[in-house]
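Forum > Structural Biology > Help requests

Title: Can anyone predict the 3D structure of Argininosuccinate synthase?

Hi all, first post here. I have the sequence for Argininosuccinate synthase but no way to get a structure on my laptop. I'd be grateful if someone could post the structure tokens.
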Amino acid sequence: MANDVKKVVLAYSGGLDTSVILKWLQTTYGCEVVTFTADLGQGEELEPARKKAELLGIKPEHIFIEDVREEFVSQYVFPMFRANALYEGLYLLGTSIARPLIAKKQIEIARKVGADAVSHGATGKGNDQVRFELSYYALEPEIKIIAPWREWDLRSREQLIAFAESHQIQISKDKRGEAPFSVDANLLHSSSEGKVLEDPSVEAPEFVYQRTISPEDAPDKATYITVGFEQGDAVSIDGETLSPASLLTRLNALGKENGIGRLDLVENRFVGMKSRGVYETPGGTILLQAHRGIESITLDRGAAHLKDDIMPRYAELIYNGFWFSPEREMLQALIDKSQEFVTGEVRIKLYKGNVDVVGRTSPYSLYNQDLVTFEEGAVAYDHRDAAGFIKLNALRLRTLGSRDRKVGG
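Reply #1:
Sure, ran it for you. Structure tokens for Argininosuccinate synthase below:
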């Protein structure tokens, strides 16, 4: 096992798990380890990861730390939001959409340094192992993948700590106790699961929430903002043009202040089990409503309904790890085509956990006030035409009704 890998690129956070994995790779495979740490907007200082990797014997030139926030939002989050993607009708896919970017960066680094393997810290029960590995194989079909949690015999936190101590891996005091729940975070969301959240009948304690205040504690006065869109992507807030990552950061702050974006969900994992997670997606929740608001006046009915039809399939592909699949790319092309005229501004009201669209304008609006007004206008719409329209649509229903009356006697 140890002889067929010479150099491996590890997705490295600097935490206990990936630090143990780093040393385990060195001792088990006898290979050179290259670390990659991505700044996805998780809100943590990343330089300690560099120092920890150096203490574990990693060469400075083999430590990669990259700020990928703008790429994450512009190339992954925004394309997904053009589809209004929700997994099982609720989940905004914050963890799912980050994995293909991390995997892509690992493969790029592997090519750069001549590594013949990649490794991740996902467990053998979760979805992330699938997402990472499907992405690796899509981008580098012959790559060797090392998934330590499926190989080693370390089955508890106590065993991880014992391994760390036996190899002089530094462990901060706050990491020695059993964590009450696990957290994954990036610029789009935070995800909490396990331990105190495992019983789905018990309400999540308030201390679980990382990125939002309770709606009950939010201001008693509503906050109004205007989000500007160009071809389906948000580009401004209250007239100020912002980069994708800066815009999402601003929406996150607004959502946090108003108690927006909490979700307590029992979902169906791709690997076959149900799991309970608490998600916080403050900015994404606002963005989704704003995007649907601008689409409501710029998308034709047929296009809008087709998008809604394919959305669950698109969301499932992302959740299951098929970002780099041809079918996701095909659906993306259709979705992006629909966004050509999704341009304009949406006025949003934020109040105690609620996001309401209260106004929308667009130079490409399909909304015609003359057509919908109850007043008689000069528009070429004859009310009498509706009779024929209704009769044609009722033809099959009338035919069925006649047959059923005959059968029923």
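The longest helix spans residues 385-408. The chain has a mean pLDDT of 94.
Shout if anything looks off.
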